[in-house]
Amino acid sequence: MVAVTLWGSLRRFTGGEGQVEVEARNFKELLDRLAETYPGLKPQIDRGVSLALDGRIYREAWFTEIGPDSEVVLMPYMTGG
Asked: Do residues 33 and 50 touch, judged by C-beta distance below 8 A?
């Protein structure tokens, strides 16, 4: 299981939970499981989200592997440079 911390406004789609657990080996599986378990998150995931893995922010890195002890944070899509 992967513990996922939800950033800010995304918590409203999980009943206010700040952290949830899902079974996933990579980012694609993680997003798919989150969308299945929390259907309210699906529109946001479809629009785009950013994922931080051990402090590094990723976008569209679908097959990036997630280790069992990884720190994972789901955020609304972040832009900038």
From this structure: no
